């Protein structure tokens, strides 16, 4: 299995809603990432988990809350988002000793 | 602050033409990765180069890492409409957990 699977593919949520994005990989990768991408821009790093521990938080607002329940799963909990948070949210994983990420196909999030 | 300048930002060519995309920095990277992204999808890794002067070929795509590991290029020979997409370079240093991304090159190959 050489894929990173993200669900849901599309999500529309109100500013008072609570929702979660899910990411799963079975490649044995021990680093997992959340990225945010706006149209025609490069991905922006949000969080990095290394060996299931949060190692990088790029000063992301607390309305985004990551969780890594085990080495294969990564969640992003969303609460009280703003319309400007609408974007493509990408999950990625990598081997500790390999230079290159495997990305999922993303969740297109719209906040209304 | 590390920066990666990617050029050109936009490129529209006819099928069969050749093209080159550049990524330049004043910083040294331990690796340089190239990705291709289609609308609504995640980036797909094309290649990773780690050795100064390294050249890698992937069918019609040729990737080069500069001798000083500060720059890289992607050359496409005889472009096809299926090459259309956003090409992103990303530089890694240290443990590569935090990549530095170029702004991307949006390529349109017209039939």
Task: Summarize this structure briefly.
Chain A contains no helices and eleven strands. By secondary structure, chain A is mostly beta strands. Helix content of chain B is 0%, strand content 52%.
Top keywords for this entry?
heterodimer; A: 112 residues; mainly beta; seven-stranded mixed β-sheet; four-stranded antiparallel β-sheet; 11 strands; B: 111 residues; six-stranded mixed β-sheet; five-stranded antiparallel β-sheet; 52% strand
Describe the structure.
The complex is a heterodimer of chains A (112) and B (111). Chain A has 112 residues and is mainly β. Chain A has strands spanning 4-7, 10-13, 18-25, 31-37, 44-50, 53-57, 64-70, 73-79, 87-94, 102-103, 107-111. In chain A, β5 and β6 (53-57) form a beta hairpin. The model of chain A has no long low-confidence stretch (mean pLDDT 93). Chain B contains no helices and 11 strands. Chain B is an all-beta fold. Chain B has strands at 5-7, 10-14, 19-24, 31-37, 44-49, 55-58, 61-65, 71-76, 85-92, 100-101, 105-110. In chain B, strands 2, 4, 5, 9, 10 and 11 form a 6-stranded mixed sheet that branches. In chain B, a hairpin with a 7-residue loop joins β9 and β10 (100-101). At the A-B interface, β5, β9 and β10 of A face β4, β5 and β9 of B.
